[in-house]
Every structure is written in C-alpha cells, then in structure tokens.
Amino acid sequence: MRGSLTPPLLARQQRWPWWPLLPLYPYGHRPTLMRELVPGRVWCFEQLHGIWYVAVPIRMTVLKVEAGLLLYAPLPPTAELLTELRTLEEQHGPVLTIVLATSSGLEHKLPVAALARAFPEASVWVSDMQWSFPLQLPPTWLGFPQDRTKVLFRDGLPHPQQLNWLPLGPIDLGLGTFHEIACIDQATGALLVTDALVALSATPPDIFQCDPTPLLFHARDRGSEALLDTPDNRTKGWKRIVLFANFFRPELLTIPSLAELVADARSSHDPSPRNHFGIYPFRWQDGWEEQADQWIQSCTDTVPCSLAPVLERLVFVRSKQIYLDWLRSLAKNDTISCLIAAHYSAKTPLSCHSLDHLADSLQSRDWAPSDQSWQTLAFIDRTLIKFGLVPH
To answer: DSSP per residue over 113-161, as a string?
Structure first.
C-alpha cells in the first residue's frame, strides 16, 4: 500500500475463522504500508504484530546504497511487500544486503529465511551470538543461508564507506544474549535501530488505517460494548496499547472475575471471532490515561526518543552503564539527523545533542524501578532470577 491510505475494507478482512484461539495478531492477514522517508534514499515498510490485539507497528527500513538496496530489520515478505520492493529494485538497483541487527528479536529473526529466499543474490548479515530457546540451534536451522550469511564485525561490515555501525552489548540474559547493532547512514543522517530506542506519538500510527480493529477493541471498557470507529476511540485504544506493550500489566488495570467475563460475553452485540467472542478481560481504573500521556509525553522536542520500559527492566536492569555508554557513543556522530526505529514512530527528528540529553536524563533518574506500572516487569525479573534463568 503506497502513499495515501484508503479506509479498510472490513468485510474483506473478516476471514477470521478460528484465529482468535491463537491470539497472534494479525491472524493471517498482514497488510503492508510502504512510505518514502527520504526522497530517493530511504523507504520503510510497516506491518502490525502483537498478541490479543495489543498490536504495534513493526518496520523494515530500506536504504539506497551503492549499486542497490539494503534491508534493515526484516519483515515477512508478503506478496504486497515483494511487489513494492521489486518496483524499488527497478528504480534503484537490486537488493544487495539483508541485515538482522539483533540477536534476540524473534519477530525480526523469523522472516530472515523467507526474505533471503526471495532475494537469492543478497548477502545476509546478522549480529553475533544468535540464539534460540529452548534448544540452541545452528544458524542454518534458523534459516540463515549457509553460503551467504556473515556476522557483523567478525566478518567485516556491509557498505562501510556509507554506513557506520555501532554495537550495543553483548549482554548475557541467561536464556540467551542481547546484542543489537545500530546503523548510521552518512548520506542522510538516518540512525537505524531495532529495539534499543523508541519514539512515541500521541495519535495512532498510520498503519492502523489498514485495520483499526486493535484500537477499537481496547477502547472499550467491557466486552459487551460494540467496536465503534471514532477518532476518540482510536486514540483511546492506542494509549491503552502503548501501556500494555511497554508494561505488560499497567498499575491501573484489573482483571474481572470469570463470571463477569461470561456475563459480558453473553450480552455482547458482536460475539464474532473478530471481537474475540465478546471477551474483554480488562478493567481500567481512573488515572490510566494520565499515566499513558505521561509516558508518551516523555518523548519531547529536546529528548524525542526513549528506552522502552520492558527493555530497561528486563534487559538492561543490571547493565545501565553499558546502555548509557552506547548512547554517548552515538552522540559523537554529529551527522545524525533522524531516528528510524523498528517499532512505533518512524523518522523522528534527532540530533547528537538529543542523545546526550537522553543519556543525562536516564543517568539522573531511578533506573529500572519496581513500583507502580513497573511491578509486573519487576515480578518477571525476580521470577527469572529465582529459577536461575537469568544472572543476578
């Protein structure tokens, strides 16, 4: 879907049968939005992914490099995505390079094999210390083509005349390793990251125009309520999704009793699979919107990006200085003009001074707290430590 967006054809998208029984959104239907971020130089492809309608954008960035294109943070190569990529190839040269710049991002790792098959002449570059759970599988079993897969830094770097690469980690997570590598495109000033930085918007990203159902689903207070598509409901649903995605179970959220859930479902005007049969197992308490606004507004003009709480509390909880050192190393690159992250907002204005301000802000405040909306993340961390699954 290129350029302007058209309203979703919900009737066409309601081929749900029994997808909600395995609540991995988008339930087999994966619209793709393509956008040109820097004319003739940078493009992005966006899809949605999530669990139980807690859907967030996931993004692959395409860079113009010498004689062709580079793909950063792979997406599933749907027919729609491949059609748009073939058009870019006709204009700017072939896909030369596919980059998986994280060792732990499963949603980015899974599409690598299919994307590599779609572009059999492209080299595949991956960050070091790739892992799988519960069994540690060899790279070829993860779908990385043996004859053209290279490890970033160990085997060199792709397009070093144009691109700077800066690693974050590796950090031992017990179950595996966090290792992410940022890419700075000197030609455009674009900083590409996978998970290590996010920028949030107060309004839903454009990709939700393809299917606003996740927003409308979470805008309700009970399962008996209809999915009403209004601008206010879209914004309300987006704010709740932001809290879910970042804190898993926010402080001002309760779970109703089974009897209450069943009664709601029975009185639902839309007991369809699309509506998860009228089941909405959440109750939001007063003050939730203020918490959402506080977190979203933490991304300001001075500091337009941040570290997601789930990474702060579960990945960098005992590695604060490693993260701050990485930010300050990035800040030394005065060519940086914008951030393009693999999640949430794309092409956010950014400068080296903003990165320094972010490092200063994180340095001065409490790190990886355990109270308020952070309680669930803290419980997960303590449980993993208790069972010896992560280092203390």
So the answer is: HHHHHHSTTSEEEE-SS---SSS---GGGGT--TTTEEETBTTB-SSTT
